[in-house]
Amino acid sequence: GFCRNIVLNNPRKRNALSLAMLQSLREDLLHDVKSKELRVIIISAEGPVFCSGHDLKELSSEDDVKYHSQVFEICAEVMTLIQKLPVPVIAKVNGLATAAGCQLVASCDIAVASEKSQFATPGVNIGLFCSTPAVALGRSLPRKVALEMLFTGEPLSAQEALMHGLISKVVPEDKLEEETMKISHKICESSKSVLALGKATFYRQMTQDLDTAYKTTTQVMADNLNLRDGQEGIEAFIQKRKPVWSH
Fold first, then answer.
1. In sequence order, what are the residues at sequence separation of 6 or more whose Cβ sits closer than 8 angstroms to the Cβ of residue 108?
2. What is the pLDDT of residues 166-191, one digit of tens each?
3. How many CA atoms lie within 13 A of 52 on its CB side?
4. What would the CATH number be for the domain defined by 190-239?
5. What is the CATH number of domain 3-188?
6. Model pLDDT for residues 55-88, shown as the tens digit of each residue
7. What does this gene product do (predicted)?
């Protein structure tokens, strides 16, 4: 199985999520997603800023309300798409992630960041409260941490972001590639169908109450056993051999 690298590649514009950038990110995420070989997607960026959020030039009053709505709608679509994809998505952050860029990190399944990375939702400082980034932030962070970020616009350091659960790991900049690939290779060793089932179920049960979540997952565990790879994995474990996944 292989890993797809998506690189935000407009460092001159601080990798702003312009409408064009969002459309191409959506295309990249969906490209070949049904491929049996694709196992993991890594999102990284060129330059000192991972992603600065929306392109504010597109949000000035010269453009009409319909255009503004379109920008926010496709942004929401991309953020939710990440969690709907059948493969894990890892953010590999080296630098500043602000506003919708911070939302992007919060929306990924796993996030590895270098020590110099910072995370902020500074929209309030320019009179545009980060309400859509707050959706992802409020689901990743304790409420009081998210609200302090949203009310003040002050950044979290990589260490603080780790402590509060916005990211999975902090590493020195020169270890970022290695650490991200280590996680990616580990994911590639597992069955794609089992991971796809597990990921979809995880997000589904997170929004349910405890009893419903156990009903959902109890059924899924039984379904998982019925998958060819479920049986193969258990047989391999009993026979003390490496499993051979169907794909």
1. 43, 82, 89, 90, 91
2. 999 999 999 999 999 999 999 999 99
3. 16
4. 1.10.12.10
5. 3.90.226.10
6. 999 998 777 889 999 999 999 999 999 999 999 9
7. May play a role in fatty acid biosynthesis and insulin sensitivity.
Q: Is 57 exposed, middle or buried (0-12, 13-18, 19+ CB in 10 A)?
A: exposed
Average pLDDT over residues 11-40: 95
For residue 178, the surrounding DSSP H or E stretch is helix 176-188
**Tokens describing residue 124:** 């309030």
CATH code 3.90.226.10 region(s) in the chain: 3-188
CA distance 231 to 57: 54
pTM of the model: 0.96
Chain centroid, CA 86 distance in Å: 13
Residues making up the chain, counted from first to last: 247
Which whole-number Å values give the CA distances from 150 to 76, 83, 117, 120, 244, in the listed order? 18, 23, 18, 8, 47
190: closest CA among 6, 39, 19?
A: 39
**Partners of 90 in the β-ladder:** 42, 110
Task: Say yes or no to pLDDT of 1 above 80.
Answer: no
